[in-house]
Amino acid sequence: MAEYKAGASAGLVLSPVICAVACPSVAEKKMEPELLNQLLKESGPLLLVSLLISVGCALLCGVIAARRRARWVYWSVMGFAFGPFALPFVFMAKPKPPKDATS
Asked: Domain map of the chain by residue range?
């Protein structure tokens, strides 16, 4: 009885592989243009919101870094790339060393 259970679970694991080998037309089916257009149409608002959040975080990180006398361009890029995840780290940013006043 134990052999049967082991064989049954192995069959369940291999079934997607067997299906892909047995039905190559299903495995190789490419996305049609109309389906792709529908996907882009439906995901447009999500992309816009994501872009707005990234730009907002870039501005916020840049302002915080400038007030802390850190590299504001660097932190703006980090804010855009990582969004809200960059905000705690900008507060730990070390300020730039002061320039020599002897000129």
From this structure: 2-27+43-90
